[in-house]
Amino acid sequence: MKTALLLVAACLTPAVCVADTLPFGQASAYNVVALGTVDSNGNPVIAGTIATNADIGGRIAAADQVLIGTTIGSGLNADPWGAAATYGMVSTNGLVAGQIFNINGGGNIYAPGNNATINFNDGGVRVTSGPSGLDFSTLRSTLQLQSATLALLAPNGIVGAPTPSGANPSWLILEGTSSTLNVFNITAGQFADANHNIDIVVPAGSTVIVNVSGTNVTLGAGIYYNGVQYSGDNAADQNILFNFSEAQTLAIDAQFSASALAPYAVLTGNGQMSGNFIAAQIGQTGEIHNVEFTGALPTPPNDPPTVPEPGTLALMGTGALSLAMRLRGGRRS
To answer: Which residues contact 102 (CB under 8 A, 6 or more apart)?
Structure first.
């Protein structure tokens, strides 16, 4: 598979990594994706549902159901990965009676059954049978592994760098100098500090990966990019990815203009969001704008090294999760 979803299994030196298209495989074309999690026998642990009534500018896809009616697809003007999407909405296990969906863009939707009211404001039909166009089982395992391997990238940026001239001295500055890929590691506490906005200071156009450690993570203040806080459909932050490889819960309670990969987390919040948002489950959120991630994620070499066997499957959803935790354990030791 010739995409960046082939992962970064052994690419631990950012300067030598290369990139390809479709950073998250077919999920790249969806503004919001709920993957769900499963145990070692393939049984659901976290249902891959989406349950927000906030307006969503792009496409959405749920491994289980979209539970609450909302407006979808109003912001597809800048849509770099749109050709990879089969439907404007995928609700694998149908919709809920009494809910109303306004489909303003993205064409047809996939939702078995006949529950809910769907208003197609740009044309389109409801498809109730056949494939959804998304293999959630494969997508889940590859994105879990992608998150784990991105978390192993060697950081090459400075966290807590000196405040640039004219900037607020209370901000947390993430400074990188690479014109291609800048990697930062921060803690859940730094991410949650309501008194310190996060300012990402890097060369324009470079890809940014911010790995955030911790199992229960909340955004406490805003995200800035080179001293400016962008919002709405502005694509200035489209090369920034926050990776939450350990998170079980993720709350976006402040303005967040960047993409988020949190394959084991239940994502909620009340802050305005702009990016691709991939999690195990999506609850109530703030308004979500369709700014698809176009950064150049690293890909692995042709012959990645052998990964140690996982020592246990306890509390782990899949073999990919076992591998991810084993890899992270190796880094800490």
So the answer is: 69, 70, 71, 72, 119, 121
Q: What is the rounded CA–CA span in Å between residue 192 and residue 253?
A: 9
49, 32 contact by CB (below 8 A): no
Tell me if 22 is assigned to some domain. Answer: no
The residue among 194 and 5 whose pLDDT is bigger is 194
Cβ pair 189, 213 in contact under 8 A: no
Residue 286's closest CA among 224, 234, 219, 228? Answer: 219
Q: Which of 57-61, 158-162, 176-180 has the lowest mean pLDDT?
A: 158-162
In whole angstroms, give the CA distance from residue 98 to residue 53.
13
pLDDT at 15 over 70: no
Q: List beta partners, residue 316.
A: none
pLDDT computed for residue 213 by the predictor: 97
Number of domains in the chain: 1
User: Would 112 be classed as within a structural domain?
Assistant: yes
pLDDT band at 130 (very low <50, low <70, confident <90, very high): very high
Average pLDDT over every residue of 200-204: 96
| Helix, strand or coil, per DSSP, at residue 147 | helix
Assess if residue 7 is contained within a domain.
no
CA dist 322 and 300 (Å) reads 20
Neighbour order of strands in the sheet with 223-225: 158-159, 172-175, 198-201, 223-225
- How many whole angstroms separate alpha carbon 76 and alpha carbon 73? 6
Q: Residue 126 carries which side chain, given as an amino acid letter?
A: R
The phi and psi torsions of 32 (rounded to 5 degrees) equal: -135, 130
What is the pLDDT, as a whole number, of residue 165? 67
Q: Residue 144's domain spans which residues?
A: 30-299+318-332
Taking alpha carbons only, the member of 79, 65, 64, 100 closest to residue 30 is 79
Look at residue 11 and tell me if it is in a domain: no
22, 28 in Cβ contact below 8 A? yes
- Measured between alpha carbons, how far is 296 from 21 in angstroms, rounded to an integer? 8
pTM: 0.85
